[in-house]
Amino acid sequence: MTSLRHAPAVVPTATYRIQLQPAFPFASAERAVPHLAGLGVSHLHLSPVLEAVPGSLHGYDVTDHRAVRAELGGEAGLRSLAATARAHGLGLVVDLVPNHMAASPSHNHALREVLRHGPDSPYGRWFDLDRSAGDGRLLLPVLPARLSEVRDRLRVEGGALRLDGQEFPLREGTAHLPLDELLAAQWYRLGWWRLARTELNYRRFFTVSDLIGVRVEDPEVFAATHEKVLELVADGVVEGLRIDHPDGLADPQGYLERLAAATGGRCWTVVEKILTGPETLPDAWPVAGTTGYDALRLVDGVLTDPEGAGELTALYREFTGRSADRGGDWEATARRAGYEVVRHDLAAETAVLARAAVRLCAADPALQDHAPWALRTAIEELLVRVPVYRPYGTGDAGRVLTPEAARCARAAFAVPEEATAVDAVRGLLLGEHGDSPEHRAFRARFAQTSSALRAKSTEDTAFYRYAPLLSANEVGGDPGRPAVTVAEFHAACARLARDWPAGGTVLTTHDTKRSADVRAAIAVLTQCPDVWAGLLAEVAGIPAPDPHLAWTAWQTAFGFGTPDPERIGPAVLKAVREEGLRTSWTEQDPAYERAVAEFTAAGPGRVPLRTASEAAFALEPHIRAHGDGAALVQLTMPGVPELYQNTEREYRALVDPDNRAPLAPGPDDERTALVRAALRLRRERPAAFGPGAGHLPLAAEGPAAAHCLAFVRSDEVVTAVTRLSLRLAEAGGWRDTELVLPEGRWADVLDGVREFTGGPESELKLAELFADRPVALLARIRA
Questions:
Q1: Pick from 124, 206, 233, 639: CA 20 to 30 A from residue 406's CA?
Q2: C-alpha distances in Å from residue 456, one per residue of 95, 333, 462, 624
């Protein structure tokens, strides 16, 4: 099956992502339009534009779907930006957030009405609320301490309950009551923020209690939350949509089908779907493809040396003292993190599932008499064994919740008779015991929790605990197997060209932990593990709190390239908090964090590790070769490439706040010329890159053939990049290695001067092709 039937009328040739915020509103983006149009992109991709929490730097904390965000310039500002963009030949793509809103009664009008009027509120169906727990009231875990400790600061004023700038609506007729009676009379219960871990009774985004899940599977909720966006689409203001976190939805396919029907197929739509291993995007989803994390893994992986990655892993275990069975193995690390998250961070979510399972089993004679604790344990054991982010429907549940997964889950029980709870839960998930609304709700909630568990345990925990090669620790990546073979790369690209030719591709996003150029520097270490070992030996005199932290911090500093404690320090602190072994976001160890800060300031934040020795300085050309190669491959492989703001030039960033800082146009560099040339070619020859263009590997011949990655698009464009340039230099260079171009005459797009002749009798020496730069982009010369 192919996604060509899902293709909209307008498919971008390339997009440019802009992070909007009060410091960079629509007017600022409008001023940048001439520069961005000059790069050659066809569309601007805007971060969320609907009303959000005041001051929000990202906009994913939506508060009102009915209005464009006033802090950004409101609807007038957005329409003005669209008009200016259109005058320069550009359209707009907007980031849409269907899964969640800000859980702020002060700003979220829908939630405020639910709190005031309870289940009978017109907005009562908007949120996933589990009123079967406790006294049935909605828990708001917003207090800085226990209620008894802040009680004296609560006051009724202006018809609302207030505490330190927070405002909570009051149930009608309760404002006059004494405080204790007033609190007991509300549809909600104010609680200490720490109660969220175990007592929360609303669905949230991952483990972020400040973001409450929205039930867009309800047609009325969908209509209410999409009216403004659909109006902007109908008016031609918006031509594309990026769907944030579809895996959080109860029914992703149903949502996407409703969205496609509502837009009339006019929108280019991509989904932030993270694919794991061999997983593919569901064919039936009416979208152009993913946002491109699968492409990021392909590009990074094919430019990583597998042999050197293995050597780094061995060195990591030796340096940190983490043996394969004690933190030095990826699969074991990820599994342990999964158990921790499902039992701790997601305890409230598994409790909701357990209560639902108890009710379903109690109502079914074939499933009765399973202890609640056994059902909860079975749920936890099955959740940690889901090999992907989530299943879709009962058929997919059977694919991911295999008999082997069930066998391993049963092994966690000491008493075999209790282990049958696993079969009961698995049967519920596979649809073997009914298909009532309650059964479907249980399956949906399990899938939603599964995606939260995978994201939190893998991306936000295990990625920080296992660090042989930090460049591999990105969303969609596989730290246990960071390299991708050339054959795997070409096979994957061929599938993308066939099935999802209009999907997105990315190298840097607002969520990447390290920008592409930082990852490029780190990945080059796989070509020279001995250099890395030498650098670590040089800085061994700077004491660190622990060896894993030292490894992580020094590799981060090496990737960043220049000493900057103001940016490296926060990135390292985030790493140790996400790791969650010595300190965390919620249980901080001040003494350990002071030691981390002192070490970072004295070492990784101060020492210019990339130039600390002659050997490290010599790596700079190879880092540039990797960065330029990755950029060109991403810009020309199957799919619609996205440039993240500022990445039209060399860009070094380390997660928040770097990734979400305002766009800051700077001077052009060598990368800019490469980007402009590739994007100009895409606009001049859209058929060479669009649906039907295909992806044909082009193999070099000769002693250094493995160091050339090349492919042809639509017999019109040839991309060739140097792969593992340091290994190439150590082996003696290109020597007599040749590349046979397709028949015809070819022009070098990057220098605009050179021409080459293709065909079996016209072998091109790679030493000639790559004489001036490590990459080449050739276009067929038309008669």
A1: 206
A2: 22, 13, 9, 33
Helix, coil or strand: residue 643: strand
* pLDDT, tens only, 679-729: 999 999 999 999 999 999 999 999 999 999 999 999 999 999 999 999 999
Mean pLDDT of all residues belonging to the chain = 95
Q: Reply yes or no: is the peptide bond before residue 657 cis, omega within 30 of 0.
A: yes
CA 506 to CA 293: how far, in whole Å?
6
**Strand residues in 531-687 grouped as ranges (E):** 640-644
* Paired sense of beta strands 775-780 and 744-748, if any: antiparallel
Helices (H), 240-329: 252-263, 293-302, 306-320
Identify the sign of the CA torsion 750, 753, 758, 762.
negative
Element (H, E) at 171: none
Residue type, 372: P
Cα→Cα distances 359→364, 369, 437, 757, Å: 9, 11, 13, 73
| 487 contact partners, CB below 8 Å, separation of at least 6 | none
Which region, left, alpha or beta, applies to residue 735 given φ > 0 means left and ψ of -120 to 50 means alpha?
Answer: left
Q: How sure is the predictor about 783, in pLDDT bands with cuts at 50, 70 and 90?
A: confident
Strand partners, 67: none
φ, ψ for residue 39, nearest 5 deg: -70, -30
420-429 vs 372-383: helix axis angle to the nearest 10?
Answer: 60
Kind plus residue range of the DSSP H or E element containing 639: none
**Beta strands at 700-701 and 738-740: parallel, antiparallel or unpaired:** antiparallel
Other residues' Cβ atoms within 10 Å of the Cβ of residue 214: 27
**Six token digits for residue 551:** 């490894």
CA distance 319 to 550: 10
Residue 532: what residue type? W
On whether the CB atoms of residues 241 and 269 are closer than 8 A, the answer is yes
Which of 578, 740, 768 minimizes the C-alpha distance to 655? 578
Question: What are 38's two structure tokens?
Answer: 């000059």
- Fill in the DSSP letter of residue 617: H
DSSP of 459-497, one letter per residue?
IIIIHHH--S-GGG-STT--TTS----HHHHHHHHHHHH
| Nearest C-alpha neighbor of 339 from the set 203, 194, 465 | 465
How far, in Å, CA of 157 to CA of 173, rounded?
A: 14
Q: What angle do the packed helices 372-383 and 403-410 form, to 10 degrees? A: 130
User: What is the C-alpha to C-alpha distance for residues 338 and 405, in angstroms, rounded to an integer?
Assistant: 15
Q: 609-614, long-range: CB within 8 Å, 24+ apart, which pairs?
A: 609/535, 609/539, 609/554, 609/557, 609/558, 610/521, 610/558, 610/561, 610/562, 612/535, 612/538, 612/539, 613/534, 613/535, 613/538
DSSP state of 742: P
Distance CA 614, CA 81 (A): 49
Q: Give CA–CA dist 502/690, Å, rounded.
A: 7
pLDDT digits (tens, 9 = 90+) for 229-259: 999 999 999 999 999 999 999 999 999 999 9
Q: For residue 640, how far is the Cα from the chain centroid?
A: 17
